[in-house]
Amino acid sequence: MMKRLRYSEFLARRGEYDDAVARTPDVAAFCSASAWILAARACLRPGEAEESGGAPRLREAGPDADSGVFVATEPETGSWLVFRRSDEGYWQPFEGSWLFACPLAGPDPAATVAFLEKTGRALAMTGPAAFLVGGVPAGGSLHRALSDAGRRARRHVEFPATDCMTIDLSDGVGGWLARRSRKFRRSLAAAENRRAAAGIEFAPAPPDQTPDDLFARLMAVQGRTEKWKAGTDIFHHADCRDFYRELLGDLRESGALRLLFARRGGEDIAHIFGGVFPGTYRGLQMSYAAEWSGVGVGNALQLENLRRSAAEGVTLYDLGMPSDYKERWADRRRELLGVFLAFG
């Protein structure tokens, strides 16, 4: 039996939702979990002007918090549906910017899609009901179940979403290195040697620093990068700055934040910012001051982060969206789709 939740109830039960995400096969788990999607809902709302400070924080559920949200769970199957209304009137994931997030969670994709279909048909009794499902692993069990439901839907459209590049750490950093080319391994060793010779050390975020202080340190490094000087840095966009600041704070509170700095002489010169979800590390941003590019500090920092992640039991290291440099690091490109279904 479906139980629809108010937004405040979803916040109170987000741990249960995250447990369901952890049991959902093949999806990008970190980006489907509550920390990512709640920060996205608070800061990346469609049509919002890029004015920093204007987005409501995720725990400040105002009187209209339920008006654009559809959250429901089916206890019998452990399935969850987590959507918000788009400007066009259909239901979309909380995070609709990159569509990494899958708004369907549950251990049995067929049962979860059946729950979606039943819900869609019930809503369609009072008017058209349409859902955009992002973060669907291409060719997986969820994709197959959605395609089957699509044959019964009024409309069914599939399209590419944003893929992810991943590293397999199930056999540790040694196993990952063994799969890299000799040239790449030599390049990493050289970067490590140059880093050590330059007196650059690694330091995790100290436990006594507030999220605001940590984000200020991160932004101080960003301001010295080539991307920032060229005007192409994602942090030039106020809504993205708000999103990552919100996410950093939430991860810090839960203990899932992983923020590592490269420092020389007491000065931050690089950072790698990410978070963990059971068995998974998700990279969020990595940057270094432009004047240190010749040292290879970015490569050395990424390698150190891989070692630390493997040491704490991470088996899947998610590098995020594809880029040229990630091709050399990744073991796999995870293809994700968007699926649009309309009922009624």
Short account of what is shown:
The protein has helices at residues 7-12, 14-22, 29-32, 34-43, 109-123, 141-150, 172-178, 182-197, 211-222, 226-230, 238-254, 297-311, 324-329; strands at residues 3-5, 69-74, 79-85, 91-93, 104-105, 129-137, 155-160, 164-168, 201-204, 257-264, 267-277, 280-288, 316-320, 332-334, 336-343. With 344 residues, the protein is of the alpha+beta class. A 7-stranded mixed beta sheet has the order 9-10-11-12-13-8-14, sandwiched between helices. Strands 1, 2, 3, 4 and 5 form a 5-stranded antiparallel beta sheet that branches. A 3-stranded antiparallel beta sheet has the order 6-15-7.
Task: Outline the low-pLDDT stretches.
Answer: 47-63
**Separation of the first and last Cα atoms:** 21 Å
Element string (H = helix, E = strand):
EHHHHEEEEHEHEEHHEHHHEEEHEHEE
Shape: elongated
Q: How many domains make up the coordinates?
A: 2
Question: Count of helical segments?
Answer: 13
How big is the Rg? 21 Å
SS elements, strand count: 15
- Mean pLDDT rating: 93
Strand fraction equals: 25-35%
Main sheet record? 7 strands, mixed
The helical percent reads 25-40%
Strand order in the sheet with the most strands:
9-10-11-12-13-8-14
Secondary-structure-derived class: alpha+beta
